[in-house]
Write a structure and sequence with these properties.
The chain is of the alpha/beta class. 38% of the residues lie in helices and 17% in strands.
């Protein structure tokens, strides 16, 4: 699938694919604590000095500390478990975030922007809600030539060409500070084909196998992130994790009281952003 393209006319809308897939996944899942992921050493340190935090689309696999973090999700089944652990979880979309400008010191979106048809709007919203000099962290799959049935199944709209990705960062005032290879997707082609078959023909059973076996195994086998300043050599990298700094603009003037009031209004605002 060429870079920047989305589904063809015979495929369901990307938003529908995403919502159906993740509603099924989270309905059959429990919360996996962020301490279990290899992102925790970095994110726990950043969160300690970032009182206003946002994670977009975490499902039940949040990477930021749950208590006190704002979460925006398109999947209803993920909201109550996050709230039960102190998260400020709201139903909504990355393309219309229910927060004022300049709200957050730390913004994360893992495996999200590749699911969005209008990814430029997603990046505009990330830029809008981030404070000046805020840290913005996100991950994306790379190399359009590696598009597979698995990408389509999980609701991807694209894979990114590295040069196009760097151009997008520049367009939206994000300064790339460091990057690392990322993701737990198996490299084996036959295993991916088996996953596609199972999730297509035996979804309930496949979700159980994923949650009960493959996720714990992936967590056990995950490697420590190897950070490089700027962009790593991406020639053999399937998925990329980027740590960016929100470039300067007119200084943000959003008080902590503004953000608290916005969080109180989130349940009502969520109705506006329901998909």
């Amino acid at each position: 699938m060429p870079s920047g393209s989305t589904q063809d006319a015979t495929r369901p809308a990307i938003a529908t694919v995403n919502r159906d897939f993740y509603d099924s996944l989270w309905s059959a899942s429990d919360v996996t604590l962020p301490q279990r992921f290899n992102t925790w050493p970095l994110l726990s340190a950043l969160a300690a000095s970032a009182p206003a935090r946002l994670e977009i689309g975490p499902g039940l696999r949040p990477r930021l500390p749950i208590a006190g973090t704002n979460f925006v999700e398109i999947s209803q089944p993920s909201l109550s478990p996050l709230r039960a652990r102190g998260g400020l979880a709201t139903l909504g979309e990355i393309t219309a975030l229910p927060f004022p400008d300049c709200s957050f010191d730390l913004v994360c979106a893992f495996d999200i922007v590749e699911h969005i048809e209008d990814d430029r709007q997603a990046f505009r919203e990330l830029r809008r809600v981030a404070k000046d000099d805020a840290t913005v962290i996100f991950s994306v799959p790379l190399h359009p030539a590696r598009w597979s049935a698995f990408d389509a199944l999980v609701g991807h709209a694209r894979r990114y060409d590295p040069d196009d990705l760097l151009a997008i960062l520049g367009e939206h005032a994000f300064v790339l500070e460091q990057s690392a290879a990322f993701g737990m997707q198996p490299r084996s082609g036959w295993l991916l084909d088996f996953a596609v078959w199972g999730l297509t023909h035996r979804r309930v059973q496949a979700m159980r196998w994923y949650n009960g076996l493959f996720l714990p195994l992936g967590l056990f086998l995950q490697k420590r992130l190897a950070w490089v300043s700027g962009l790593i050599d991406v020639s053999n990298v399937d998925e990329l994790l980027l740590v960016c700094r929100r470039g300067g603009r007119q200084k943000c003037k959003v008080s902590s009281e503004d953000l608290r009031n916005e969080s109180k209004e989130a349940p009502d605002m969520a109705k506006k952003y329901t998909v």
